[in-house]
Design goal:
Elements: H1 3-7, E1 26-37, E2 40-48, E3 58-64, E4 71-77, E5 84-93, E6 106-116, E7 123-132, E8 140-141, E9 156-164, E10 169-176, E11 179-185, E12 192-197, E13 208-217, E14 225-233, E15 244-252, E16 257-259, E17 267-268, E18 276-280, E19 292-296, E20 311-312, E21 319-326, E22 329-336, E23 344-355, E24 370-378, E25 383-390, E26 396-401, E27 406-410, E28 426-430, E29 438-446, E30 449-454, E31 459-464, E32 473-479, E33 483-493
Parallel strand pairs: 1-20
Antiparallel strand pairs: 1-2, 2-3, 3-4, 5-6, 6-7, 7-8, 9-10, 10-11, 11-12, 13-14, 14-15, 15-16, 15-17, 18-19, 19-21, 21-22, 23-33, 24-29, 24-33, 25-26, 25-32, 26-27, 27-28, 29-30, 30-31
The chain binds beta-D-fructofuranose (FRU).
């Protein structure tokens, strides 16, 4: 697609997400370089500007002042003599430790340069930096690149940098084969190996990619804090889930991460299929205090063949992370950012409704950009929930299985699915009811995705769907008996694109 054609795109193309970030045109994968600086949230992303499948990687760029509405900016980083620009991160160098900014603060990005070893097909991945002293508008790649290389490791990528104030150093976490490595630096240019984590821990059912490491509060009313390590694992045909993201909880002393869990414990950030390579924003102001991340809303299993035309892939909605103590231990909790409330358009609220089988109390509501918040009290029902993007031919079911105590998305009959045989299916996760048999569902439905947050973010499922644009019916259903909806809010959401 040429530039004039791209400019004509209106964000009303078939399957185009209305309130999720997607590139104007062409291919996108991982979010990169997310940083907040001088009133702007930056979102860079793995981008192939010349096609709608993965190709020579650039960093695409967009900015936002509210994490909801995005402005596209020109490509930030392009392949150069060291190779393509793979995933990485960005930070504000507040004290000019790098010396790039004449004593002022500025942005430094750290990413993987990917090419092949001379006269060989063997991939070569090395870490490099670039800096910007005009708020990310233009970037200078550092003349001393690459700043870290290690010939012994082939998969060696996706550096995520942060400032560790207790040790007064930059820390960088990097995927290296089936482990992560941590390095430290005083100036973002010279890096020293600190430690390695991961051998024997968690899931190794795919290549390790895109780590992140950050501290989070545990429970709102305690002073306890823990470190969380995000780690994505690539698609391996032997496992049905495709690519997915796990996390570890533990301690970090500036050099070494210590996992609180047994080696065989594996925790997943999302039990749907389409939330990958998620990492968090750097430098969100202290007064705000949130740790916000988003993921690439796709799966390497079929990412290159999803049925969109002008562009391919979107990001999840931004989500706030925290930790909560549950029966099984401390677990990650995710909530949609509150800024999304500003795109609510029409709203309907109900309280204390009894839902009976084969009656649909929301049959008058139509829409395919919806936010739904419902608090249920389980009665005699064996299953209940919502059917969204529904017509005579198709529906996506977001349901709660009372007997198994599981929340699920069933996209078996959700619309177009013939592009990959593993796309259809039902994806689920454990979710126990809370006080007096309550279950809370918070749903976001867009033109080609569903995200569901169970019990205030204890369990999250994110799935792509490709329904017909006219499949707009909504059903609130129950099976096997009554269920009570204590509170129900349904909001149609405005598009974040256009005028
Ligand atoms: C993850 C990933 C990264 C790599 C990038 C290349 O999806 O494989 O490890 O840097 O994509 O586009």
């Amino acid at each position: 697609m040429n530039n004039t054609e791209i400019k004509q795109l209106s964000y009303t193309e078939k399957y185009r997400p209305q309130f999720h970030f997607s590139p104007e045109a062409n291919w996108m994968n991982d979010p990169n370089g997310m940083v907040y600086f001088e009133g702007e949230y930056h979102l860079f992303y793995q981008y192939h500007p010349k096609g709608t499948t993965w190709g020579p990687m650039h960093w695409g760029h967009a900015i936002s002042t509210d994490l909801v509405h995005w402005e596209h900016l020109p490509i930030a980083l392009k392949p150069d003599e060291h190779g393509m620009i793979f995933s990485g991160s960005a930070v504000v160098d507040w004290n000019d430790t790098s010396g790039f900014f004449n004593g002022q603060p500025g942005l430094v990005a750290m990413f993987t340069h990917a090419d092949t070893y001379p006269d060989s097909e063997r991939p070569r991945q090395r870490q490099s930096i670039a800096y910007s002293n005009d708020n990310g508008r233009t970037w200078v790649t550092y003349e001393g690149n690459p700043v870290i290389s290690d010939e012994s490791i082939t998969d060696f990528r996706d550096p995520k940098v942060f400032w560790h104030k207790e040790t007064n150093k930059w820390v960088m976490i990097l995927a290296s084969g089936q482990t992560v490595r941590l390095y430290t630096s005083k100036n973002l240019k010279d890096w020293e190996f600190a430690s390695e984590f991961g051998d024997g821990y968690g899931s190794h059912e795919g290549v390790w990619e895109c780590p992140d490491l950050f501290e989070l509060p545990v429970d709102e009313d305690s002073n306890q804090k823990k470190w969380v390590l995000f780690l994505s694992i690539g698609d391996d045909p032997r496992y049905e889930e495709g690519s997915r993201t796990q996390y570890f909880i533990g301690e970090f002393d500036g050099e070494t991460f210590t996992n609180d869990h047994t080696p065989e414990t594996t925790l997943w950030i999302d039990k749907g299929r389409d939330n990958y390579a998620g990492v968090s924003w750097s430098d969100i102001p202290h007064e705000d205090g949130r740790r916000i991340y988003l993921g690439w809303m796709s799966n390497w299993r079929y990412a290159n063949v999803t049925p969109t035309k002008e562009w391919r892939s979107a990001m999840t909605i931004p989500r706030v992370l925290s930790l909560r103590t549950m029966e099984e231990g401390i677990r990650l909790v995710q909530k949609p950012i509150q800024e999304l409330q500003n795109i609510r358009e029409k709203s309907i609220q109900m309280t204390n409704q009894t839902i009976i089988p084969s009656e649909n109390i929301v049959s008058n509501i139509q829409g395919n950009t919806l936010e739904i918040i419902a608090e249920f009290e389980i009665g005699e029902a064996s299953e209940f929930g919502f059917k969204v993007c529904k017509s005579k031919q198709e529906e996506t079911v977001i349901g709660y299985d009372v007997i198994q105590q599981r929340l699920f998305i069933d996209r078996t009959n959700s619309g177009k699915s013939d592009f990959n045989e593993s796309f259809v299916g039902k994806h689920e996760g454990d979710l126990a009811p809370y006080h007096n048999q309550k279950v809370k569902l918070h749903l976001f439905v867009d033109w080609s995705s569903v995200e569901v947050f169970g019990n205030n973010g204890e369990l999250v499922l994110t799935d792509l769907i490709f329904p017909d644009q006219n499949s707009k019916d909504l059903e609130l259903y129950t099976v096997g008996g009554d269920v009570k909806v204590k509170t129900l809010e349904i909001h149609t959401l405005k598009s974040i694109w256009g005028k």
